[in-house]
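Open question from group meeting: does this chain pack into something compact, or does most of it stay loose? Before anyone orders reagents, we agreed to write out a predicted structure and look at it together. Recording both the input and the output here so the notebook holds the full record.
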Amino acid sequence: MANSKNIYIHRELEEKIAPFLNRREVLAILGPRQAGKTTFLEYLTKELRQEKKKVKFITFEKRTDLDLFNASIEDFKALIEDYDCVIIDEFQYAKEGGKALKYLYDTTKVKYIISGSSSLELTFQTGKYMVGRMIDFILAPFSFREFLAAKDKDMCRILERKKFNDLFQFNNRSGFGAEVNRRLIRLLEEYALFGGYPAVVLSKTLEEKRKTLENITEKYILRDIKDLLRLATDDELWRLEKFLAGQIGNMVRYEELSLSSGLSRQEVKKHLNILEKTYILSLIRPFFTNRRIELVKNQKVYFDDLGLCNASINDFRPLTARNDTGAIMENYAFQLLKKLYGENIKFWRTKSKAEVDFVIEQEGQAYPVEVKYSSKRIVGKSLYSFIEKFKPPIAIVLTKDYVGEEKAGKTIIKFIPLSYF
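C-alpha cells returned:
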C-alpha cells in the first residue's frame, strides 16, 4: 500500500503468490474494499514488467474497459491476446464474467490475474466456470507485521530477524528485553484499536483515523452489503453488526441476534453469511470428540478487522481504560492464528463449561491455544482439562509479555507474547 509519498508497504501475499505467477491457472485476489488490492496489483504489474513481461493492467471501474468486455468478448480478446499477462482489477463488475473468462483462458495463452471485493461475487459467479483453472488468494488489511513495516521499521526488522512464523516451534530463549517488549506492546495495542486498513494505518491523527474508519464502514459495510442483500434499508444490518461488535469471542445465539436486530432467525443467518463472505467477521465451530459432553453446534464470532469492530461501538479508548481488553486481544489472536494456520481454527467447550479459546488441528493432532493477556504466568483449569483429555504434545498460552515454558504431564506449555507474531 502506498502513502502520500508513494512508499509501498510490502505485503505478505507477495511471497505466497510468487510460485503461482508462472503457472497456467488464473489467480484471483479476494478481500475487502480498501485493503490495498489495487495497490498490490499495480505493484505486481511493475514487478512483472521489470522481468520483461508484457503486462496489461485493466480496471473494470473504468467504464470503457468494462463495456468492451461485456459487449464483445471477441473484441476484448483481440485487445489482450498478445500480452503475457493481463491483470483485471474489480472483476466482479463484469456481467457473466466467469463464462467470458473461461473462454479467454481456453482460447489464449495469456496469464490472467483478477481481483474482487467479495467471495460471493467472485467465487460463486466466476468460480463455477473456473473449476481447476483458478486459485484464490486473500488480501486482508495489514497484518501486525505489515502494520509495523508502515509504523516502526526498526521493530519490524527486529521481528523479521527472529523469523517467528510458527507458535509450536517457538523457542522461549528467543524472547526480547523489557524495552523492546514495551514498544511492541504499545504498537500492538494501537493496532488492536484501529485495525489494519491501510488508509487508517497511514492516517496521522486520532480524528483522521476515526473519520477514515467511519468512511470505510458507511461506504463499504452499509452500501455494498446492503446491495448484496437487496435491502431497502440498512438499519437491521447496522444493529446486527453493532451487537456482534460487543459479542466478540462469545457464542452466537440466534434468538439474541434476532431480538437485537429486528430480523427473523433465517434473516439473521443470511446476514451473517454475507458478513462472512465480505470479510467483516468470521464464525468458528467447536472442536469435539464426544457429542454427549461437548458442544457441537454453537459458533463463536470474531471480526476480521478490529478497527471496524471498535468503530461499530464507537470506542477507541486505550485498552487500559476498557473492560473488554481480554476479548479484543482474543480477537487479535484469532486473526493471528488464521494468518498462520488457515481456516481450520476451532474452540472447545464442554457442557460443564470448561472452555479453551482455540484449537488448531494439524496432522491428526489437536493443539489448544489460550489467550491470557497478562505479564504473569496464568494457566486456567480448562487448559489442564484439555491437556488431560487429549494429551497434546504442545499447548500455547498467548500473553502480554510473559515468556516461559513448563510441562503438564508430557505436554509442553509454551507462553508466548502476542506481539511477537
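Observations to bring back to the group:
The mean pLDDT is 92.
The chain has two domains: 13-138, 144-420.
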